[in-house]
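cron nightly-structures :: item 1 of 1
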Amino acid sequence: MGALRADARRNREQILRAAHLAFLNQGPDAPLDQIATGAGVGNATLYRHFPVRAELIGAVVVDNMAQVAAVAAETLGAEPSAGQALAAFARRVVERRIVAMLPILGGHVEPTAEFRQARDHLQAALDALVEAARAEGALRSDVSAADLIMFLTVLTRPLPSVSCDLDDAVRARLLATLLDGLRPGGATPLPGAPLDADLITASLRTSNKMI
C-alpha cells in the first residue's frame, strides 16, 4: 500500500511538472492529453488526480508558489549576506521558471483555502528576503516584493521563435542587468558575449523553418 502511495505521489509530481511546462509555453488551454504524455502517464491517471482542468491549474499555481517561497527561505538562510541571498533567489527562480505561472494562470484559479495559505506563505517569505536585503543596503528602497516577482516574471516568459541557447543568453543578460538595477549603486559585467542582431535574425529564421 505504501508503494502505491509513493507511485501516486510520483505521478502527481510528474503531472505538475509537465503541466507547468505546457501552460508556460501554450497558456491555460494546453491540451491535457499532451500534459499526460509529457508526464509519462495515461489520461486516466491524469484525470484521477485532476478530474477537471481548473483543479490542475490551481495545483500548478499552488505548487509554484510553494517552490518560490521555499527558494526564498533557503537562500536567505544559506547565503552569507542578504544581498547574495537576493541574487541567488533571483537566479534560481529564473532558471527553474517558477514565477511565470502566477500571472499566466492566476486569473483561472479559485481562491481556495489552500491557495490563500500558499499565497500568504509566499508573501511572508518574500517580505523577509526583501526586508533583509534592504536593511543591509543591498536593495534600493523603492522596490517591493511584488516588484521583484513581476520583474522576474518577465524574465521567465519564453521568447517567441528563438533557440533555447539564445533564449538562455538573453535571460542571463537581462537578469544581470536587473540585479544591478536593484542595487542602490554599483554594477557588474554582463555574462557572455554581447548580443548580435545578425545572430538573433539567424536564430529566428532557423526556428521558423522548423515550424
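cron nightly-structures :: done
The first helix runs from residue 2 to 26.
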